[in-house]
Design a protein that fits this description.
Chain lengths: 379, 396
């Protein structure tokens, strides 16, 4: 594994960088928030992303995608993360596309993947049910009756859950809460009878919903992957999501950091630039080191995913925990070093702080992944 | 390609004929292990160490990329890769540890005169001359550029007077490369020169320093009216600071490797130690608070290792990034030793006597020694200064 981008990946990254700077600077996100937009992402922007091929980066060529891989996908998210570019990329192009491509039947792949690549549908993946991420705690029941499954239960903080056309849901077909065995994945239309969705107004202004399932009936064709093997499948899909969101979080950290460094070079107090103060210089230098370590971890994780590394779980937990720690540090320090202006709504830094605290919880917190890293490493 | 294949067979055959059995993996454990630094005062517990050094030195393969005219191997990067691979395959020992190779040779190649390269490089490569580095002084630590050891121009020679400190292995070295003040009236950075001094010259003396760990390779080095030929200056007069900075990067990169831990499962591995002293609970370290600290540390270690690898893959455009590695690597190494000592509990700071294992006593010394890691080669605070100014471009 070489920890550098190839030409294709570098091209994707450069394209995404230009796109984010020109089409979706942070004001784009701000205007959607101010307008209390129901999607919290913009359809025209999404169409442009689809035209650039981003919706199909993980979709195989035979289904209309480019199959450029996790690394290509992640560097796009990294660049989007720098301007908090809102889009369905994470929920649809990463989680949805990967889940279907990896675990779908031929019928499911033919049915959904071309629609994902062409931007005609968006997806959402619903797994968590309680305050803290742990899929073994799944209670949503999927009871098999007469060749169908009946789903009952609720899901929390589903990304793009309020708008997605297609839902992928983790349910329990046997066993009980706390067990990884006995879980199964289902794929279904979001407007099926018995589904009710409540859009959430979270501090970070991303599209989330809580979703209730009341006697939702699906046929056995809706099983995604093997019955009872949904736990491992979900965890594997989540590992890809963890790596992708780590890249986005790295982009968040890089942007908040560079804004801060710029500020240290222009703000004057006591008649001098505050960047001359060693108390601030050393903290900035320490953040630089943490960001460099995060870059390497994210790079290793996304390359590992593309190479089907047998260390994928370890690398995903490494990336998610370290990008969480780094973003936590940088989002706090950025505000402290800016002083008063940093805590005003008019300034953009607050967006990064709010986004940081939500993403830290998504797909497992720093502590969740440290625990997982330790377990996987044999201690 | 064909040439490289030929080269590989040649190397294989040469190693087969020339690498003594005790210099390979699987050697008889009863044969004493030498740490080979070469030089006039070298002593070899195992005669084969000397044979191996001489043969590798003769080929120039202790510095394989250096041109043959300077005693090097004259190999291409591809050939060096093959040499390393073939040596790795038979578990061949590194024939020579050397500040000459790691620090001085790169400087001579870049700044030295033709005569200096021809004079010094072959002896470094063959391990005939052992070098030490004279930088720090009692009054010049972090503020290295304030150094006061002076070299006065006496026409025929420089007359050197002053004192260096923290000179690693000065008592075992043959020559010293030193920073000296040649321009007392210039601004401090612009009055320093890089000078090569034979330690057998009249007036040079050394004295070992005892550290809190009980012993150390460090010395004080004194210069008392030492006459040094004028041609021993490297680079221009008063242009030594540029060379010094360059050389510090080599040193920092080298020290940062200390941050890498012992192999998993080995007796010096933090997890092994923690499990031994806290016990295990279904494969987990028996104390959950301590386990959290270990996880935190191991994750950073993993990320640090990946960052070293990434720097290599990117083509090692090091410069100021060397400061990051130096800072992070040494701080990390200190932390790991603190965790190991802490994991051992009451057995953790054993000093002497038959009640304790030798390994445990060694660990106490290692732990104490790490405290110097973030001081030598520029303190952690100096590294953070370098990062903030040279990488981040923050104002002075």
């Amino acid at each position: 594994m070489k920890l550098v981008l190839n030409e294709e990946q570098q091209f994707l990254k450069d394209t995404a960088k230009n796109f984010a700077e020109e089409r979706t600077p942070i004001n784009h996100f701000r205007s959607l928030r101010d307008a209390k937009d129901s999607l919290l992402w913009d359809k025209e922007i999404w169409d442009e992303m689809v035209k650039l091929g981003w919706a199909g980066i993980l979709v195989p060529e035979e289904y209309g995608g480019s199959d450029f891989g996790i690394t290509g996908m992640s560097v796009v998210l990294q660049e989007c993360g720098k301007t908090l570019t809102p889009s369905p990329l994470l929920a649809t192009a990463v989680l949805g596309a990967y889940a279907i491509k990896e675990f779908g039947t031929d019928e499911q792949k033919s049915k959904y993947l071309p629609l994902i690549a062409s931007g005609e549908i968006t997806t959402a993946v619903a797994f968590d049910e309680s305050s803290h991420h742990d899929i073994s705690l799944t209670e949503l029941s999927a009871v098999e009756t007469e060749g169908n499954f009946v789903l009952n239960g609720s899901k929390k903080l589903v990304i793009d859950g309020s708008s997605a056309d297609v839902l992928i849901v983790l349910g329990r077909t046997s066993g009980s809460k706390g067990e990884m065995a006995g879980l199964s994945l289902f794929i279904l239309e979001s407007h099926a009878d018995g589904i009710s969705r409540v859009k959430l107004d979270m501090a970070d202004s991303r599209n989330y919903a809580n979703i209730e399932f009341n006697d939702v009936v699906v046929s056995s064709d809706a099983l995604l992957g093997s019955q009872e093997a949904g736990g491992e499948a979900m965890d594997h899909i989540l590992d890809i999501g963890r790596i992708a969101i780590s890249a986005e979080m790295l982009g968040n950290s890089e942007a908040a950091f560079s804004t801060t460094i710029d500020y240290l070079k222009e703000r004057k107090q006591f008649g001098v630039l505050i960047g001359t103060f060693q108390a601030l210089q050393h903290r900035a230098a320490e953040m630089f080191c943490e960001i460099e370590l995060t870059k390497s971890s994210v790079m290793a994780a996304m390359q590992g995913a593309d190479e089907n590394s047998n260390q994928l779980q370890v690398l995903a937990s490494l990336a998610k925990s370290i990008s969480g720690d780094t973003l936590h540090l940088v989002s706090n320090e950025a505000i402290q070093m800016h002083g008063g202006i940093g805590v005003t709504d008019e300034y953009d830094l607050g967006f990064f702080l709010k986004r940081a605290r939500v993403t830290e919880q998504i797909f497992g917190s720093v502590n969740f992944h440290k625990e997982r890293y330790a377990n996987l490493s044999g201690f | 390609m064909e040439n490289l294949d030929n080269f590989r067979s040649e190397v294989k055959a040469w190693l087969d004929d020339n690498c003594p059995p005790s210099m390979r993996t699987g050697a008889d454990p009863k044969i004493p292990h030498d740490e080979v630094w070469g030089g006039r005062k070298a002593e070899y517990k195992n005669p084969e160490s000397k044979i191996w050094l001489d043969r590798m030195g003769e080929k120039g393969w202790t510095m394989p990329t250096v041109p043959k005219e300077y005693g090097g191997g004259g190999l291409s990067k591809e050939e060096v890769k093959i040499l390393n691979e073939e040596m790795f395959l038979i578990g061949a020992k590194t024939p020579l540890l050397s500040f000459g190779i790691w620090m001085l040779a790169p400087v001579l190649l870049e700044y030295g005169t033709e005569e200096q390269k021809k004079e010094h490089l072959p002896k470094i490569i063959k391990g005939e001359i052992r070098w030490c580095q004279g930088y720090s002084e009692p009054g010049s630590g972090s503020d290295l550029a304030s150094l006061a050891t002076k070299a006065e121009d006496k026409g025929e020679h420089f007359l050197v007077n002053g004192q260096k400190v923290w000179t690693s292995y000065a008592d075992k070295a043959d020559w010293i490369f030193a920073l000296v003040r040649t321009g007392p009236l210039e601004p401090k950075h612009d009055g320093i020169s890089f000078l090569l001094i034979d330690m057998e010259t009249q007036g040079v003396s050394t004295k070992p320093i005892t550290l809190i760990s009980g012993k150390s390779p460090f010395c004080e080095t004194f210069f008392d009216d030492v006459e040094v030929p004028k041609e021993n200056i490297v680079g221009e007069l008063n242009a030594g600071w540029t060379i010094a900075k360059k050389l510090l990067q080599h040193e920092r990169t080298f020290i940062s490797n200390f941050g890498l831990a012992a192999a998993a499962g080995s007796k010096k591995d933090l997890v092994t130690i923690a499990k031994k002293h806290f016990g295990e609970d279904a494969g987990k370290i028996g104390n959950s608070f301590f386990r959290t600290e270990v996880a935190d540390h191991k994750i950073k270690e993993h990320a640090f290792g990946l960052t070293l690898k990434r720097a290599g893959d990117e083509g090692g455009k090091a410069s100021a990034v060397a400061s990051m590695f130096k800072y992070y690597g040494t701080e990390h190494n200190k932390k790991r030793h603190e965790l190991m000592i802490s994991a051992m509990g009451k057995d953790g700071v054993a000093w002497d006597g038959d009640e304790f294992d030798q390994e445990d006593k060694n660990l106490t010394r290692s732990w104490l020694r790490t405290k110097g890691n973030s001081l030598e080669g520029g303190t952690s605070e100096v590294q953070l200064n370098v990062i903030s100014k040279r990488v981040l471009g923050l104002p002075s």
